[in-house]
Amino acid sequence: MSIALTVNGSDAPNAGYITWTPVPLTITNNSGTPDRGVKLSSRSAQGSITKLWFMEQRGDAPAEEIEVDVPGTEKTVFVAGIFQPGQRHFGASRDGKDVTIEASFLDGVGVEGQLDVMVRVRRNANELSDKARDDFLTALAKLNGIKVDADPAPGPGKGIYVTDFVEMHVAGASGTEHGDSHFLPWHRLYVLDLERLLQEVNPAVTLPYWRFDQPAPNVFHEDFMGAMRQIPRDMSDPGGEFDQGGALTPPAAFAVDNPLSKWQIKSIQGIPRAARFDPANDPANGVADSSQPFDFPLRSQRETLGLADGTPGNPDELGVGGVGFSRMEASPHGAAHVSFNGYVNDVPVAPQDPLFFLLHSNVDRLWALWQAAFGRDASNEQTTYPFQSAADTPDAWKVVSADQWPWEDGTSQPGGLLPPGTRKENFTDSPVAGNSPGDVPKIEDAIDPYANRDPANDLGFAYDDVPYRHPPAPPVI
Amino acid sequence: MNDSKYLASLREELRGKKADDTGDANALLDIAGDEEKLGELIGTLTDETASDATRRSALNVLHAVAVFSPVLPTKKPEYVNALRGLMDSDDAGLRKQAFTGLAVMKDEVAQARLREELTSGKNENDRAIASHHAIALLGFDEKALDASLLRDIAKNPPSDACLMEAVRHMPSDDAESAEVLLEIMEDDSKPLAVRRLVPDKVSNAHPAGFLRAVRKMISEKGLGGDLAPYLVSGVGLIDSEEAKSEVDETKAILKGLIEDAPASVKDAARKLLKDD
Question: Can you say how many angstroms the Cα of residue B82 is from the centroid of all Cα atoms in its chain?
Fold first, then answer.
């Protein structure tokens, strides 16, 4: 073929992954005749509804087809997935490269260049295809140290998931990670670091989100995150006592061919987990104690997004502590955690259950949705992030420009822990995100992950139901 | 543009629906950030005039806020002291919660007490906490639970629940533990739920011993037993070059039997035999 196409500046197979955010698409004319015009369009694979936008300049209104002059032999334009509300995964790819970029010369006949890509976004875990689910589980198991392919494996419970990701979310780092507005950006970086490692195993994988305010019967199943028994929501009922950290809770059940059946944390086998709701039919629901009485409900998505919705008296700011959107740390986030007995209900051990990352993917999605709805992605605005300088907080690690532990060469709060495993100055790279956020991310690197404000901010991930803000098409005259 | 309309409709849906700022979610957030209120709850734990039910409820609230409270970690010394005081409560539920709260924090006083209970020789009913719970709680700290104690329990478990926890927590790196685990795996009188944990634990740590046991069990019982899928799955975890010829020998035996095997065994064998 006479036209070569590359996305994200690379022709490596693991670069052919895009999101809703426009990324560079380079057209190289190898026909031997320079200065030819090219038409770009996309073709969905059979059974796929995924489609692509094209833009000559990044800030142009997108179109499903464009015609561009290619002066000399090379030109870079931009491509993005088409956000399609009402479609499966909002139009994102199901479980692999299912859409093809096609290029043809304006003065020629037929397609002269093509490139298969995947519109790769984080999807609702309850709606994953079997392949997407199994790809995710296999990649996750590999990071646990479980042998899943011909590569050498350190053994269950000894992989980087345990040495690094479990060890960075412990009591000695609770101040670094929780309790204030920095909770959201820190966890965005945390889950992204893990997701990029999953993508090193299989580039088609993303971290799915558990939509905890909706029933998720496909998630709580032996073939996915495990089947588990139900216990009372009321902690004062027999069997409903709070089992902090889950040592006294039976493990979830997995099919023998589910890689999670071999999950270990160091030597300890199994994932203890019991739900305070009917996992087959109901959403998570927090916890209660009728003898107190108190009731800690889980906020719905609408209630969460309404925490700071810009109405008078409810300023649309991330806020601090008890004001603004940051209240979501208590509910729905905290309420989701304590909707179970198990590892997942206790901060120091919660990531020992991989459900933790699906829970936090949803927490992050809610933040991303709120940011998108209210344009809260300018890192230098206090309504977006309140701690703009040392004058705003006595805690240096919370300032928007602060390097974040464990990737920085420092110690955690309050325990003074050193970075665990291999995390120091080693945030995982991605072939689709340039050098963003570098080896040592700051809070500000997490604020505009879709690059709505600056292309350099693109972190290479997205959610199925959170779109990029394209400019409107010009009026038709 | 679909994205603009989508976001606009989301904003429209949210406008005018002011979030309920008075709900219990915020009440708990208030407690989580209030040093005085947390102090009162911790004080309830040591208040001898408070009923057991009141103290259990205080613990429930403390547990619920622990996931997101920035203040509770700063009250650790008082909290730990209060929990230690409850280890000898007359109320079994309070004892269990106290030991749990302390074990999660890797409290050495609680760990010593749990080990003491495990090795005391007391009747199970007379122990401060059930033995299988004690094992599980010590498991929060890998330094607190040594392999020799787990081996002793596994060889003479006071209950199936104890055997389960001993096996779940037992490291497989040392030859002694692997031997104990393999004996359990081969013992039909032991619960299946325990035996099926063993293949994943020992197959790669001690492939030679594991594969010998697998071949012996398959030659005696074929692939129809309930343990067979787990044995087959365990073979798939072996990553040792030294064991390659034994793995190949085992795979050859499996291939000869797989056609008549139950679906569960075929599923487990699918990946293992895929490349052959």
Answer: 26
Closest alpha carbon to B170 in B156, B149, B193: B149
B263 near A CB under 8 A: no
Provide the token pair at A201.
């195993």
User: Which candidate in A146, A264, A269, A465 is best for mutational testing of the B interface (most B CBs within 10 A)?
Assistant: A269
pTM > 0.90: yes
For B250-256, what is the mean pLDDT?
A: 89
Residues contacting residue A250 through CB under 8 Å, at least 6 positions apart = A228, A229, A272, A274
Amino acid letter, A380: N
The widest CA-to-CA distance across chain A, in whole angstroms, is 82
Q: Are A209 and A123 in contact (CB under 8 A)?
A: yes
According to DSSP, the residues that pair with A251 across neighbouring strands are: A272
3-state secondary structure of A448: coil
- Considering chain A, what percentage of its residues have pLDDT values greater than 70? 97
The DSSP element (H or E) to which A437 belongs, if any, is none
pLDDT band at A477 (very low <50, low <70, confident <90, very high): low
| C-alpha–C-alpha distance, residues A239 and A338, integer Å | 15
Check if B238 contacts A (Cβ < 8 Å).
Answer: yes
Q: How confident is the model at residue A323 (pLDDT cuts 50, 70, 90)?
A: confident
pLDDT of residue A173: 92
Give dist(CA B212, CA B209) in Å, integer. Answer: 5
For residue B22, pLDDT over 50 is answered with: no
Beta bridge partners of A29: A3
Chain A residues in contact with B204 (beta carbon < 8 A):
147, 153, 155
Residue A107, class by beta-carbon neighbours within 10 Å (0-12 exposed, 13-18 middle, 19+ buried)? exposed
